[in-house]
């Protein structure tokens, strides 16, 4: 799996299912609140690090049902 989105993927992992419930992590894309807020200001290397982490954690979730199958955070 690639670390950065391919040409047919969006620049952002946002899936327009924004929910943080009781912690600072979005249930849709897996980013922290600060990562979401600062995404447009991040360098390509910073974005690559976020993409690598969220994909390893099973994000982004592109369907509603996938939200219930979210892996536990370490």
UniProtKB/TrEMBL annotation:
It comes from the Bacteria. InterPro entries: DUF1289. PANTHER family: DUF1289 DOMAIN-CONTAINING PROTEIN, OXIDOREDUCTASE. This is Fe-S protein.
